User: Which sequence fits this backbone?
């Protein structure tokens, strides 16, 4: 493969007008490719105790999803909450609604679920059966809430829409409640929220958590979720649900993602406590000061350090904008798209740099890009030894998945400065290059 | 009976993929949404299949589905050919591509002048049967399109048709067959369809003097090779002591050779010893020994025959896959289209020897004795390649379970 040729296909950040078309794949043939939204739906239903997932799709779609759930206690193992309706040639020709109804009745008779997510996949979506009407009919006839999650992968780029659509579908389970002082946490998908700085702050402020979607709650928790005073959205997959709850139940929301820039974290904390009608906890001042000191210390060591951004737990453009503000140089950013929430960060990056942009989850051709761009750092999942041979240090970021708040800033900076030092040593011929 | 509670039976497409991915020197390019390919990686890795630089996906967007635009696929073919230089590129339709009716053959014809690799397409998409139909298609296709016509034969070489990594202990079984063939006839295996083989070996498989068809899905391929290269074939697999001896005699007859007499004598001796269980069975007062079997057709047929020969009645013999690929299936072997029937059968088993998979194991009563003979492997992993189910070594292993089972009946 020719790295120059690969790069010539890509657009730079300033040239992206339509993210769907302009953020191109490095190659036409990909390996391993992105995850499927069906998998995302499974990740979400897993965290909802008492809910069943009924996949409508090919043997293959059902097989891989069931296989993923088999060793999980949350799912209930082999005979657990993941079941399927597999479709064949006859169903493609004549539709599969009748079959899904039969399967649903079997499910009700045998398992008595509290709620059912019917997850449709690519083929039933191409056929065009009206599953939304079916869900309404089944809900009316069964006495439990039946929700439809559409997960056709040809309409989206990765698994996250599957998570998003599943937790958004939970809105149908919610009932009006009298507000109390609790919060809901929406969108936590990596690490345990209990381990985060944000949770420690909530606990020390005496604030209770009502429902956590999709990371562990019951149907009853979801039903009562509108009693929360505010929704904390910790990933943009939670935004559609938060917006619906705001419109229907008047619950405000704070977007509190895994921000790395202390200014963004400060704003998120201020917003949260303002909605809660509580003063900012004093300990936040100290946490902020620690993060700001980490920033000024790191700046000296990171100015001029170039990097390629891969798949990390952080928000791609927020993290890249923050790193750019430290004097670092983004050479290429791998991402799944650009959302409206990213626009300020995109503008911020463009004030100093104009990196290449490509779709993520296609590692093999990246090897040829390294030779062309020669970055010092690679953030994301890669083979460290393979990178070292090309004079690049890997920045490990996975631990950031379990962080929210100023802790994310300090963690990322520590990882960056450590890896930048390593990259310099590799390039100077040290560290057994 | 529309609900599937457990793992569905793998589709034809899955069988095709795990067959093709075992051929070194080729690339498999899937035309469809990337998620299916990424999702499949876990299963294939569990089956011991290396995928980097041999499995690719084009991904597919809404435009491609609605407009039928195949330029993404065409570019991907050219790219894989240029970057990986495989001898063959297998282009496999996803379920989406199959439903919208993408003309993969047409695309291959159009692109062929632009690439060096041989292009071959599979348009099944998962709707033309289960994995049994898929592996049958793969074997036949390979025999027809990749194996070249050869007149001259190498007397000491044979091919194996019917190796399938989707079957439990496949690698160990192939090693056992190779040992038996070496000890009985001094012969060595050439191509193995489809396990750890390569394009070049398949191309020259017509040189072998015999094809061993170890599962019925390989018969069509063997017939094609017989027609094309004049290669004789023997169908059937060696299960149990007497079954292994009988199989070796069938091979001997086809080869017009005598098998190693000491090996045959050893098998006959072991069979006589195992047959003593018939007497133990007659002595049992309360529970008569009975077995419930579930797995691939040839495995169920072979093992049930062995068990009957030692006094264990094969109460239920259930084939995991449809019997369409089996010419003249044994009348006693059932196939159930839905899982509910077999769930009921295995739930009702009491004081039985259960030869099945880890899902059915969970349904069985505690009075039963279980031995795994079929995938999926849920409790543990397949690591050992010296513990086959076929051959006398496989029968030795089964006898350990039989002894354990008889102890529960006394």
Assistant:
């Amino acid at each position: 493969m020719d790295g120059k040729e690969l790069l010539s296909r890509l657009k730079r950040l300033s040239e992206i007008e339509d993210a769907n078309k302009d953020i191109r794949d490095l190659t036409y043939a990909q390996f391993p490719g992105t995850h499927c939204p069906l998998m995302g739906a499974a990740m979400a239903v897993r965290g909802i105790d008492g809910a069943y997932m009924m996949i409508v799709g090919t043997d293959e779609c059902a097989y891989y999803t069931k296989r993923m759930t088999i060793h999980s206690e949350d799912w209930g193992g082999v005979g657990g909450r993941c079941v399927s309706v597999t479709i064949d040639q006859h169903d493609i020709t004549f539709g599969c609604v009748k079959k899904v109804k039969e399967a649903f009745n079997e499910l009700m008779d045998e398992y008595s679920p509290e709620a059912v997510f019917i997850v449709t996949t690519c083929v039933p979506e191409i056929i065009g059966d009206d599953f939304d009407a079916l869900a309404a009919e089944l809900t009316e006839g069964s006495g439990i809430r039946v929700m439809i999650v559409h997960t056709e992968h040809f309409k989206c780029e990765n698994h996250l829409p599957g998570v998003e659509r599943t937790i958004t579908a939970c809105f149908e389970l919610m009932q009006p409640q009298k507000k109390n002082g609790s919060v809901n946490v929406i969108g936590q998908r990596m690490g345990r929220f209990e381990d985060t700085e944000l949770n420690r702050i909530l606990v020390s402020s005496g604030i209770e958590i009502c429902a956590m979607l999709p990371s562990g709650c019951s149907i009853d928790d979801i039903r009562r979720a509108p009693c929360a005073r505010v929704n904390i959205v910790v990933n943009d997959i939670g935004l559609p649900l938060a917006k619906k709850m705001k419109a229907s139940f008047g619950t405000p929301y704070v977007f509190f993602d895994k921000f790395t820039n202390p200014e963004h974290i400060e704003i998120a904390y201020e917003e949260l406590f303002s909605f809660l009608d509580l003063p900012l906890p004093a300990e936040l001042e100290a946490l902020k000061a620690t993060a700001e000191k980490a920033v000024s210390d790191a700046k000296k060591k990171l100015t001029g350090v170039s990097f390629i951004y891969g798949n990390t737990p952080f928000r791609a453009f927020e993290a890249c904008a923050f790193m750019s503000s430290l004097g670092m140089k983004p050479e290429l950013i791998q991402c799944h798209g650009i959302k409206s929430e990213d626009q300020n960060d995109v503008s911020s990056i463009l004030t100093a740099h104009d990196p290449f942009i490509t779709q993520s989850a296609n590692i093999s051709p990246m090897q040829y890009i390294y030779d062309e761009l020669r970055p010092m750092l690679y953030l994301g999942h890669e083979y460290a030894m393979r990178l070292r041979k090309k004079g690049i240090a890997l920045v490990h970021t996975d631990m950031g998945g379990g962080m929210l708040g100023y802790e994310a800033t300090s963690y990322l900076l520590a990882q960056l400065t450590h890896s930048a030092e390593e990259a310099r040593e590799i390039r100077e011929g040290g560290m057994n290059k | 009976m529309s609900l599937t509670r457990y793992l569905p039976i793998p589709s034809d497409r899955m069988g095709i993929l795990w067959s093709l991915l075992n051929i070194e020197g080729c690339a498999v390019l899937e035309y469809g949404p990337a998620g299916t390919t990424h999702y499949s990686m876990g299963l294939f890795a569990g089956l011991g299949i290396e995928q980097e630089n041999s499995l690719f996906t084009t991904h597919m967007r809404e435009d491609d589905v609605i407009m039928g635009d195949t330029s993404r696929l065409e570019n991907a073919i050219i790219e894989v050919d240029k970057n990986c230089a495989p001898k063959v590129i297998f282009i496999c339709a996803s379920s989406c591509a199959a439903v919208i009716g993408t003309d993969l053959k047409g695309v291959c014809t159009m692109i062929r002048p632009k690439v060096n690799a041989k292009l071959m397409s599979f348009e099944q998409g998962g709707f033309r049967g289960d994995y049994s139909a898929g592996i049958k298609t793969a074997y036949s296709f390979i025999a027809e399109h990749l194996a070249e016509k050869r007149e001259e034969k190498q007397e000491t070489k044979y091919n194996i048709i019917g190796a399938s990594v989707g079957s439990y202990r496949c690698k160990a079984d192939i090693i056992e067959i190779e040992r038996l063939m070496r000890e009985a006839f001094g012969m060595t295996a050439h191509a193995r369809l489809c396990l750890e083989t390569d394009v070049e070996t398949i191309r020259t498989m017509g040189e072998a003097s015999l094809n061993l068809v170890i599962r019925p899905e390989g018969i069509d391929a063997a017939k094609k090779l017989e027609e094309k290269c004049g290669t004789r074939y023997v169908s059937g697999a060696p299960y149990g002591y007497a079954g292994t001896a009988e199989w070796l005699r069938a091979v001997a007859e086809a080869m017009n050779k005598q098998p190693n007499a000491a090996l045959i004598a050893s098998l006959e001796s072991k069979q006589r010893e195992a047959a003593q269980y018939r007497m133990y069975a007659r002595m049992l007062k309360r529970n008569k020994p009975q077995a419930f079997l579930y797995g691939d057709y040839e495995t169920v047929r072979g093992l049930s025959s062995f068990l009957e020969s030692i006094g264990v009645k094969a109460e239920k013999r259930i084939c995991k896959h449809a019997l369409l690929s089996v010419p003249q299936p044994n009348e006693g072997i059932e196939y159930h289209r839905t899982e509910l029937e077999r769930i009921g059968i295995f739930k009702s088993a009491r004081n039985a020897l259960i030869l099945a998979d880890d899902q059915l194991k969970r349904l069985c009563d505690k009075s039963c004795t279980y031995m795994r003979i079929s995938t999926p492997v849920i409790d543990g992993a397949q690591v050992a390649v010296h513990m086959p189910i076929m051959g006398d070594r496989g029968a030795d292993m089964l006898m350990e379970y039989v002894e354990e089972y008889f102890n529960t009946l006394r």
